[in-house]
Amino acid sequence: MHEIEHVLHLERGILYSVRELLVSPGRSVRHFITEDRSRLVKPVIFIIITSLVYSLLNHFFHIEDEYVEFNENQKTTTGLLFNWVQGHYGYANIIMGIFIAFWAKVFFRKYHYNLFEILILLCFVMGMGMLFMAVFAVIEGVAHLNVMSIAGYLVVIYSSWAIGQFFDGKKAGNYMKAFASYILGMLSFLLLIVAAGSLIDAVIRH
Length: 206
What we know:
Helix content is 78%, strand content 0%. By secondary structure, the protein is mostly helical. It starts with a helix and ends with a helix.
């Protein structure tokens, strides 16, 4: 009950968190990590709630049916894993965040933040990404406009901006490093799914 009250609080709950993460994500997360952890929603709760919002809207409007479809003559483990990701965005985003955090640690190794603190940042950033996707899902579902591809670009741009601002927003090169971290993290996550699925299928066949 305490967590639910905190989430819904207008001055320190999820609405406050969304506003701060929209205006100044890097500064807000730095403040959360180093000074005050009472005003923003806890990062894991934030990403799970925002992922749930997108998942509900996606199922209601059937948005991803038009963009993501696995047509397999024979069921594979890789297909099952991708279906799991679609059905569990909250957990999948946390796992993907680990990969992005690893690459961010590589590119920003001279900064003193550890992997756990970078993962906190990514929970907030990817949670906001889910909210962007949710907003565009509503627009597409109501107005029947194909705007989800725009949402994808917006998520990448926002994530790169937020990560770069977190480390040092005054250095332009940090935004390129942030972009590289995000893209490489996503690719690593996807490659892991394909590799794991292929390995499991190979073991089963033999």
